[in-house]
Amino acid sequence: MYCPQCGQQQVSDSLRFCSRCGFPLEGVLQLLGSGGALPFYQPSGPREMSARRKGVRQGAALFLAGAVLVPMMGIINSFTHGPSLLDILAPLAAVIFFLGGLMRMLFAAIFEEGAPNHHQIMTTPYASPPVSQLGAHAPAALPAAQNNPMGGWRPRPNTSEIRHPASVTENTTRLLDKDDSGNR
What is the pLDDT along the chain (184 residues), one digit of tens a residue? Predict the structure, then answer.
């Protein structure tokens, strides 16, 4: 397979990135595996309601039940004369329904888990292109990478021909040898 960005031939079809330019090749493999069709997301089966959504619905139902029942209890209590059980139940129902509903919604929103992601990518694995009947003379899927050298650069000098300088001690030793021969 060739990199679509720089044209570098890849060593293996299982590479995730181009070895030359770093282009991500996973999408190219998926595209080639699906025959050129873009992958699509397909939800998997019927979805169940998440615990968070159930909790928020329960809290909202409790809150709305309180919005209906508490005024009805107040109206019924206003028609009774004297102390009754509704004198205690109406305020208690208001606290339970309104605060209980709000607390249930808040608990569900903060602590319960949401719906998991059930999306699946529908693709087929990559299959290498079939071998042509033309054999090795068949044209490649992409042209080979072209080497375009940058202009203005001078070639690197061949340093194997340059003579290394002699060491400092070698020259001084020769001078001492000359002095010794003249003093004897």
Answer: 788 888 888 777 777 788 888 888 887 777 777 777 766 656 666 678 889 999 999 999 999 999 999 999 888 888 888 788 888 888 899 999 999 999 999 999 999 888 766 555 555 555 555 555 555 555 556 767 777 666 666 777 777 666 666 676 776 777 777 665 555 5
Alpha helix segments (H runs only) across 36-130: 51-79, 86-94, 100-111
d(CA 62, CA 100): 7
pTM above 0.70, yes or no: no
Q: Residue 40 forms beta bridges with which residues?
A: 122
Locate the domains of the chain by residue range. Answer: 1-42, 51-111
